[in-house]
């Protein structure tokens, strides 16, 4: 990624209101920026997509929204129910619920992995974002998609440097090669602490 893009991402993230629960500390913001950049490169999820999902979810390290087995946790509010992504993330990324909840990096990489898988399955970022939230095709899903893409559009309007740095308004990337093998292997080397 271009140095200008990294600096711009740092500035945007620091100026943004990150959560409805609490603001991230400067150290947490730094970890989030590095995690978004690395997860974007590894899983081929555009930075603006990750940023918009993060803004929509509004989580923070340690966040738990919900009760029991169906809680959404961490910065990206990943659903940890056993019928959802938790078993997949545990197997493919070797990450625990506690790590998704407490670790900014684990939450970011988990979210990027989910978005990458859903993009491969659906072929569009709009549908991938919808599936990140829920697979039921209902008004809640549509509202979530529209909200995330509203945040994405606003981000790109306010930060045209991202477009100049190579990001397209119609966000498309090539599919991630062999999710079963390469992603889990590459991610296993990431320290989620």
Give a brief outline of the structure.
The chain has one domain (3-59, 105-188). The chain contains 10 helices and 3 strands; from the N terminus they run αααβββααααααα.
Protein architecture, described:
With 193 residues, the protein is mainly α. It has one domain (3-59, 105-188). It is 62% helix and 3% strand. It has ten helices and three strands; from the N terminus they run αααβββααααααα. It has helices at residues 3-15, 26-43, 47-57, 86-93, 97-102, 104-122, 125-133, 139-158, 160-164, 179-188; strands spanning 64-65, 72-73, 78-79. Strands 1-2-3 form a three-stranded antiparallel β-sheet. A hairpin with a 4-residue loop joins strand 2 and strand 3. It is globular, with a radius of gyration of 15 Å. The model is unreliable at 14-19 and 168-189 (pLDDT under 50).
Structural class from helices and strands? mainly alpha
Low-confidence stretches: 14-19, 168-189
Oligomer: single chain
Let me know the largest β-sheet: 3 strands, antiparallel
Strand content: under 5%
What is the straight-line distance between the termini?
24 Å
Order of helices and strands: HHHEEEHHHHHHH
Key traits:
three-stranded antiparallel sheet; mainly alpha
Task: Compile the SSE list and pairings.
Elements: H1 3-15, H2 26-43, H3 47-57, E1 64-65, E2 72-73, E3 78-79, H4 86-93, H5 97-102, H6 104-122, H7 125-133, H8 139-158, H9 160-164, H10 179-188
Helix pairs in contact: 1-2, 2-6, 3-8, 6-7, 7-8
């Amino acid at each position: 990624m271009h140095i200008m893009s990294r600096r711009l991402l740092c500035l945007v993230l620091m100026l943004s209101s990150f959560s409805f629960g609490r603001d991230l500390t400067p150290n947490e913001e730094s970890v989030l920026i590095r995690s978004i950049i690395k997860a974007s490169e590894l899983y081929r999820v555009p930075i603006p997509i990750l940023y918009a999902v993060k803004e929509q979810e509004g989580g923070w390290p340690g966040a738990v929204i919900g009760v029991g087995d169906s809680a959404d946790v961490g910065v990206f509010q990943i659903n940890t129910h056993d019928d959802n992504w938790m078993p997949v993330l545990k197997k493919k990324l070797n990450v625990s619920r506690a790590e998704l909840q407490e670790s900014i990096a684990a939450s970011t990489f988990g979210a990027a992995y989910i978005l990458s898988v859903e993009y491969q399955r659906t072929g569009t970022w709009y549908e991938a974002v919808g599936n990140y939230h829920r697979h039921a095709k209902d008004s809640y899903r549509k509202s979530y998609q529209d909200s995330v893409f509203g945040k994405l559009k606003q981000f790109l309007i306010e930060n045209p440097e991202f477009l100049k740095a190579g990001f397209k308004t119609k966000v498309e990337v090539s599919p991630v090669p062999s999710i079963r093998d390469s992603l889990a292997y590459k991610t296993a080397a990431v320290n989620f602490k």
